[in-house]
Amino acid sequence: MLVVSDVSVAFKSLLLALFLSTFPLISSCGTTGRSAGLTPRLAHCVASPVSTIVCSTALGLTGTKAGGAKKAGMAVRGPLLKDELDIVIPTIRDLAFLEQWRPYLSPYHLIIVQDGDPTKKIHVPEGYDYELYNRNDINRILGPKASCISFKDSACRCFGFMMSKKKYIFTIDDDCWVAKDPSGHEINALEQHITNLLSPSTPFFFNTLYDPYRAGADFVRGYPFSMREGVATAISHGLWLNVPDYDAPTQLVKPSEKNTRFVDAVMTIPKGTLFPMCGMNLAFDREMIGAAMYFGLMGDGQPIGRYDDMWAGWCCKVICDHLGFGVKTGLPYIHHSKASNPFVNLKKEYKGIFWQEEIIPFFQQVVLPKEAVTVEQCYIELAKQVGEKLNGLDPYFTKLSEAMVTWIEAWTELSGTAKKSDATSNGSVN
Amino acid sequence: MLVVSDVSVAFKSLLLALFLSTFPLISSCGTTGRSAGLTPRLAHCVASPVSTIVCSTALGLTGTKAGGAKKAGMAVRGPLLKDELDIVIPTIRDLAFLEQWRPYLSPYHLIIVQDGDPTKKIHVPEGYDYELYNRNDINRILGPKASCISFKDSACRCFGFMMSKKKYIFTIDDDCWVAKDPSGHEINALEQHITNLLSPSTPFFFNTLYDPYRAGADFVRGYPFSMREGVATAISHGLWLNVPDYDAPTQLVKPSEKNTRFVDAVMTIPKGTLFPMCGMNLAFDREMIGAAMYFGLMGDGQPIGRYDDMWAGWCCKVICDHLGFGVKTGLPYIHHSKASNPFVNLKKEYKGIFWQEEIIPFFQQVVLPKEAVTVEQCYIELAKQVGEKLNGLDPYFTKLSEAMVTWIEAWTELSGTAKKSDATSNGSVN
């Protein structure tokens, strides 16, 4: 019976091969060929039913490095993309949370952006490789262009994106801890982000079984074959168990609400759809979209706060849509430990709550010219339109528009010919 | 400490009330007012943290009716929308699967559309209230317009939609069984569909914590307050555990793949995004969108099959987007027992696999005129555009365009002045 079954499967495969070879349109983009557009290593990852294990092999990782992810029933393995990813953390306090993350994050290089008082000493747990920048460093490195980097607001994290020279960034807040999945196993958030970034997105058509590239899933009936290759993923937006990312009014109304629902899904946010991007647990391909990952003017001296990541998300999404990049949301979860003070938040968000009612329609309608083919070009065009169309809302948007241009200038300088040695941090590089 | 906390919460509420009353824009659409646009009964359902229980109370159900849903730790209660919902089942065989569904479906009226040989006797389990239509009935009731109803294809189910006089429809295939959630409890699929249909959708902006109206969830930071009322939901698309709804090529390549991932989420499919709507486990508001829920010309005498629900889904989605109705997907799951034969399927899907590569761009670009303000008007316009723009693909689309018009004519006749008595079934109505 087993033999018959095997023959049957072999016959089916043969028939399909014949079918697909007969119709090249399908064979070039069909189910079997859906990983054709991926890099070779990604193709291996995706095609395998045990992708997470094969991934590490395909990436040439040895599995012997200390500090790799541990999962029940899975051997310890080396950290994925160790030399291609920086972790950016904005903070005003000691980074005790890194102790819990040690098995997952310690192999990676940290870029710490110290907010607030530069004279305060930030303690980083031993064994972490890091560079640390405070406000004095930012002023020294950027000179007059430092005006585009926010002060006394976690928006300052984008300075870390600028200083990185790696392809990928994972950014996490210092009140985010390792979450557990429903079976009680710790979630390696970074590993999931990397999986998300290394597998394609599907922004042009919704797949009802969510991420078609996950093991055990695929494209469902009716999904056009020509779209099954997907597009490259620029952003992976992770979620939060425990304290959800609510605005001040919702925090006030539901002071005790906790997010306990573990939704086992990753999905592409469709083209043309905006979303509220939270910077708490976020990863992205810096080479693809980093230039648009600007967190705006927030905090000290600015009329609003807590819209830094939202602003970056809206800008990034319209640019990703224009350039055909993918944005994913869903897994991984982190455990968000404490809600920020809703009264303080209300003060920060106050104007943003009104402004977003006009900002969202602006972003929903924005059209970028065909000539804008790089993220930098798109961003400059967006800055121009922000200055033109949102300035009636408040003079702040003129200032923001100018800061967006300054950001791109600084980004281009630092990402361009400037050598890393010209812009050293004052942190300890282990 | 508890007292202080209570005072604090009360004070927060007071402050928010003051804040919201000061800014009427927010107060009319803010978090506390998000259910303002719902019907009173729905507002009760949504606002409560124990919504499923309060729902049944708010709906005036007694909880004494036999056959209500049973959940661990939850009292038996009366069936939701018992007199407002019909269950439509297309079949060619005995409906043994209804035995397993008895606790959940037996309180509802069934409309059975018998496909294939009209002389065959379909056995319906005792105790079910039903009407049954075979091909002879369809021909008798619709006369020449019966040509728009497919034969030897489950597309014939849409005749049942036409015959119903209820506000809501749940349609399910006869190889779908009761699924279990990860905790081992049976899933009352219909109850979840009703919850989906009675709570709003959010098609204009993505909420990263999925359905904001579920207990324990809400709109996240950055979600515009003016969009938090949502829009009425027209369609609830449920999913499948066990055998996934794959096309023939994917079935052939992955003959043994099972869907074992229970994703605990319901979400709105954003405006402007198409999806592959499967008719296996589907509910909709017949008054809102029924006229567009036409499953096309499939099966006997037609060049394709297995695109019936896809066609309906594409048509419905563009019309829902045009009219501002919501479409949800996700929960509930059913257990899909057996994969259909991939070889037979390949024959049926063959042309559709090619055609959909042009059909999808057509639907993605279709624009309905502002003057089309009813589903019927939208559908007639869509039929016209199908005839004009897809006829180059195959003469079939001219025929389909005409059938779409015939469908609307028949729908209008039967939904209009025609009395139910003019169109009796030959089934046993208990």
From TrEMBL, chains A, B:
GO terms for cellular component: cytosol; Golgi apparatus. One of its GO terms (biological process) is UDP-L-arabinose metabolic process. InterPro entries: Nucleotide-diphossugar_trans, RGP_fam. SUPFAM superfamilies: Nucleotide-diphospho-sugar transferases. Its main location: Golgi. One of its GO terms (molecular function) is UDP-arabinopyranose mutase activity. It is found in: Golgi apparatus. Residues 1-28 form the signal peptide. It comes from the Eukaryota. Keywords: Golgi apparatus, Signal. PANTHER family: UDP-ARABINOPYRANOSE MUTASE 3, UDP-ARABINOSE MUTASE. Belongs to the RGP family. This is UDP-arabinopyranose mutase. It comes from Physcomitrium patens (Spreading-leaved earth moss).
